[in-house]
Structure prediction request, 408 residues.
Amino acid sequence: MRLLKQGMFLLKLTIALGSLWILFLLTRNKPGEEKMCNCSGILQGGREALEQAKLLTINKDFQKSVHIPDEHYMSATKNCSEFKLRRKYFTSPLSQEEEDFPLAYSMVVHHKVQNFERLLRAIYAPQNIYCVHVDKKAKSSVLSAIWAITACFPNIFLVSQPVDVVYAAWPRVQADLNCMADLYNSSTRWKYVINLCGQDFPLKTNLEIVRTLRSLKGGNSLHSEEMPAAQVWRMRNAHKIIDGTNQGTGKANDPPPFNMPIMYGSTYIVVSRGFIRSVLEDSRVPALMEWFKHTFIPDEMFWATIQRMPGVSGSTPPHRKYDMSDLNAIARLVKWQGLEGSQDSPDSAYPECHGSHVRKVCIYGAGDLEWMLKQHHLFANKFDIDTDPIPVYCLEKYLRKRALSELQ
Ligand SMILES: *[C@@H]1O[C@H](CO)[C@@H](O)[C@H](O)[C@H]1NC(C)=O
Ligand SMILES: *[C@@H]1O[C@H](CO)[C@@H](O)[C@H](O)[C@H]1NC(C)=O
Ligand SMILES: *[C@@H]1O[C@H](CO)[C@@H](O)[C@H](O)[C@H]1NC(C)=O
Prediction:
């Protein structure tokens, strides 16, 4: 037993030293101008480091130097072992604890391959399982690049039934559902599933994620609240996909089946295997799905509603006292523009965005990192390497250092 333990320790030490060595080689051989920023200063909110990062971000040459065309991934993955080595993918579980608690990921993407690959690399562990849904209407170079990456790993696969995702409409949910069904069918080992889009990034290491999920003790963690009065129209007015957009038909929607209380929440969830079993097998769910097809942004209601259905694994009662906000759930940290503001204002939930906004959501800048890393969420949204590569670069360094220090 002691010999075994010593053996394990030596193995871990070898992995740690090996990873550090590769890290060293890579930072030496491929300078990349991202290296010019002072990540430890940025993560501490240091003014000088942040100003330096800002200057770098607005530099056109810098932006160009960071861009990677889709075709690159097809050639870079011709030799898979070389690709994994170069990109420093972990090739064995970092601890017994992580090996004993495999996770499943459903990833829905449609563009920005570099974002996807860096996210994948940040969450990759050989004991986990990954399903990737590439939008049916994605550019063929995007599909080819992502296919080439996934083909390098036995535990990453493309969804068996891709759909044409329409913004704010049912197919967005269906994309995740198809991946989750594939994940459920392909392995019985995983304990929790987390769904992601290409512009998410983790704030925690795999070990931290595993420990947090174990502490949920079979429960789920997702945004699920009473429907705000201002959003009720999304379910009251009947909607239909016409010419690729989800449009109001001018008619009233039917009342929800079984008089089910419809809840408000997020597209992004952290749920147990049992929750997915309920979604796939509960006899009430097909009727709910049909009904949600006639609503607006059903992805922000479907999961939240199922989480409050009696009999669903890890669910909580529909009573308002059990409401959980997006800030209390661990699934996803998002800065909505309307809730940003000065710390002194009682109306602001978080400090102002230091990056830019797309559809009223903050695309993080380096100045958001210090605050972000103090939050309990497992993932944050949105990051865009084309807009600002520094937040992802510094998070990568932070997480890698943390994962390796956990080995001791
Ligand atoms: C990075 O920033 C930190 C904190 O602001 C500072 O102490 C350190 O000297 C900086 N390092 C470099 C290389 O500029
Ligand atoms: C692939 O890369 C690995 C690691 O660099 C190398 O050992 C191997 O010979 C390569 N295989 C082929 C077929 O080139
Ligand atoms: C799961 O696999 C079984 C047997 O291979 C198959 O009959 C079933 O349709 C699959 N279910 C899903 C949801 O893919």
About this structure: The first strand starts at residue 103 and ends at 109. Residues 20-31 have pLDDT under 50 and may be disordered.
